[in-house]
Each structure stands twice: as structure tokens, then as C-alpha cells.
Amino acid sequence: MAATKELLFTYGTLRKGESNPMQRYLENNAEWIAKATFQGKLYFADGHPAATPTTDENSQILGDLFEFDESSGLLQELDRYEAYRPANPEKSLYLRKKRKVSLKESNEICDAWIYIYNRPVDNATPIPSGDYAQFSKG
Fold first, then answer.
1. Which of 1, 76, 106, 122 lies 20 to 30 Å (CA to CA) from residue 46?
2. What's the number of domains the chain is made of?
């Protein structure tokens, strides 16, 4: 029986090219597919990149799309990293949700897992470009 493939959209410290142990773990257990965008607003909140969904079609977050085997245990590792507690979502720093993302080159729409920030962003620093990599290196 073939393994079920899943997609993950990353926009912060897990993006391709970032240098940290969990990003390396992701790259060792998933295949990078393409650059992609998510309709949302990006912030820097309490030391973390923070994505929130929006209805504003002009507000896009740039990120990377990875494909992985559902049975790999990758999501459980990432849940710990992102402080997502499936049994206690209200206490989670992020919520893992399946959302529509658009491949940057082809505009193809697909469903991917994304970690949505689960705290208020009132005092967070907006990242108007939607590109955490550019923000963190600037």
C-alpha cells in the first residue's frame, strides 16, 4: 500500500535555507516542492514569525511547500516544535490547519498544512512584505 502524501507550507524558521535543527529535520524527512503563497498577514510576535489568515487577496505570505509521507511522524515532531497541543488547542501557541496555498510559479492551488499563530497580534511587528526570510536577514 502506497504511503499517503501530505503537503506542508512553511513561512518562518522552517523555510528552505533557514539554519536550525528542526529545519534540517524537515529537509531530511520531506521533499521541497516549490515556493508558494498563503493569503494572510505575517507578523513578528514575541520572537516568532506569526501567520494569520485574512480575506484581503492582496495580502500574501511567501513560503515553501514541502511534501512528506503522512506516516513519517513529521507532523508530530513539528507540533512539538510549534507548541501545538491537539488535545488542548486553546493553550497552543500555533494551531495546525489545512489551508489553500498557491504555487508561486504556476498559481496552482493546493491544500497544505500550515501553523497559524494562536495569540493576539495587537503588539506584534507587521511584516508587510510577507517574507520572513527577507525580514530576518534585513
1. 76
2. 1
User: In the beta sheet, which residues pair with residue 52?
Assistant: 41
Distance CA 1, CA 53 (A): 36
pLDDT in tens, the chain (138 residues): 567 999 999 999 999 999 899 999 999 999 999 999 999 999 999 999 999 999 999 999 999 999 999 999 999 999 999 999 999 999 999 999 999 999 999 999 999 999 999 999 999 999 999 999 999 887
Domain range for 125: 5-137
Q: How far apart are CA 134 and CA 137, in angstroms?
A: 5
Q: Which of 2, 1, 4 is nearest to 68 (CA)?
A: 4
Q: What pTM was computed for the model?
A: 0.95
Q: With beta carbons less than 8 A apart as the criterion, state whether 78 and 97 touch.
A: no
- CA–CA distance, 42 with 53 (Å, rounded to integer): 9
Question: Strand 5-10 and strand 60-69: pairing?
Answer: antiparallel
Q: What are phi and psi of 90, to 5 degrees?
A: -65, -20
Return the residue matching grid coordinates 501553523.
Answer: 115
